[in-house]
Design brief:
mainly alpha
């Protein structure tokens, strides 16, 4: 029996032991996945375009401003290992409801007129997003075993569309509101409250459908820490996260240094994320239909390498092309690593554990990125060295992606 056939067989074995949901309930579940995905980047990407406003209003330096993006990543690293245990104890749906409640609390707190509340709220919302990051791929593997690529694509599209909207409207909202940048950050509580209302029903259903069931496929635990494949997936996760979060933090500053206005730089960041949307939808479908994803990882990495190289130019047209290519690479790399959690494992519990490991170590690697780039900018008074680091990391992403993309599973 082939590895892919064995994987599908284990999925069916697990699924047969769970109470089956109706088509209506599955539609509500899919809507819940999409709205939770919408809350997973928008509160973070809202920060980049107004980070200079925050810095000038609060008196913090570039390094401390970078911490506003690093804090959620530190929270991702700290909380991710505990997400599978939380789901095992309370159920997957209830854990996801808790996740969006925590996000809402964090968004509300960081909108208060206090620098301490700004940083504390940012860390808290990062804890909630961390739970969603780990558990959503596992839920998709459990409830949509034959549509993993399509559902992962929809989840990724929702995340990136709202991340793009968040970047694009931050400056206009800050300009129009008497609350300034606090309005730009605080308005995303509306979206997370909507997610809470939708997931209240799912939490009730989750008490009947627990993620972790006893099945033959799960009797032998996988030793992730000794699996080279698990570490390649983890490195891929960390590198793509480092590249993405440093970009959404400092791309507006890089473009402003080249003569773009604050509003134009914000919209360029929005363009980067919006243009990634087709990649985040198409790549999971292609990855799910192929046994080997090495070609996809090569194309993805080349988009990133070329895109960041073009940011060295001063011609607006070439810079725009560079931003677009970086957006395609960022969207495709995130979609690929999300699919690796599913394709490189044999059942939902294993997917949750790999996701937890990859996101814990991966985000720990990425957490220093925004602060490091702020420090390098203060030191060099320019963006040349940070951009060279981005290109080097894209090459490293290619190397790890070739290994993670091979047709095999961690067991």
């Amino acid at each position: 029996m082939s590895s892919r056939t064995q994987q599908q067989h284990s999925i069916y074995s697990e699924e047969e032991q769970l109470p089956q949901q109706t088509s209506k309930n599955m539609g509500i579940l899919l809507a819940g996945i999409i709205i939770i995905a919408a809350t997973m980047r928008s509160p973070i990407t809202a920060t980049g375009p107004v980070i200079e406003w925050i810095r000038l209003d609060t008196g913090i330096g570039h390094t401390m401003a970078g911490l506003l993006t690093s804090l959620p990543l530190i929270a991702f690293a700290a909380v991710s290992p505990f997400a599978p245990r939380l789901a095992k104890r309370f159920g997957l749906e209830t854990s996801l409801l808790l996740a969006v409640i925590i996000v809402t609390a964090g968004i509300t707190m960081r909108s208060l007129p206090s620098v301490v509340a700004l940083y504390a709220g940012t860390a808290i919302l990062g804890c909630g997003i961390a739970l969603s990051n780990v558990l959503l791929p596992s839920l998709i593997k459990r409830d949509f075993p034959l549509r993993v690529g399509i559902v992962t694509g929809l989840y990724s599209v929702s995340m990136n569309i709202f991340a793009s909207i968040s970047s694009g409207i931050s400056v206009p909202v800050a300009t129009a509101s008497s609350l300034g940048w606090r309005a730009s950050l605080g308005m995303w509580a509306i979206l997370s409250i909507g997610a809470i209302l939708l997931w209240l029903k799912q939490a009730g259903e989750g008490r009947k459908r627990m993620l972790y069931v006893t099945s033959q496929s799960e009797t032998a635990p996988t030793r992730l820490l000794t699996s080279s494949l698990a570490w390649f997936v983890t490195l891929f996760m960390g590198i793509q996260s480092f590249i993405f979060y440093t970009t959404i933090t400092w791309l507006p500053g890089i473009l402003a240094n080249q003569g773009f206005s604050s509003a134009s730089a914000g919209w360029m960041l929005s363009l980067m994320q919006m243009i990634s949307v087709p990649a985040t939808f198409i790549v999971p479908i292609l990855a799910g239909r192929t046994r080997d994803q090495r070609l996809l990882t090569t194309i993805t990495s080349m988009c990133l390498i070329t895109g960041y190289a073009l940011l060295f130019t001063t011609a607006p047209a070439l810079v725009t092309i560079g931003v677009a290519l970086a957006g395609i690479g960022a969207g495709a790399s995130f979609a690929l690593v999300t699919m690796f959690f599913v394709l490189r494992t044999n059942h939902a519990r294993e997917a949750a554990n790999l996701s937890g490991m990859a996101q814990s170590f991966g985000y720990l690697l990425a957490a220093g990125g925004p602060m490091l780039f702020g420090l390098l900018h203060d030191w060099t008074q320019g963006w040349t060295l940070p951009l060279l680091i981005q290109i080097s990391l894209a090459v490293a992403l290619l190397i790890t992606g070739i290994q993670a993309g091979k047709d095999r599973t961690i067991s």
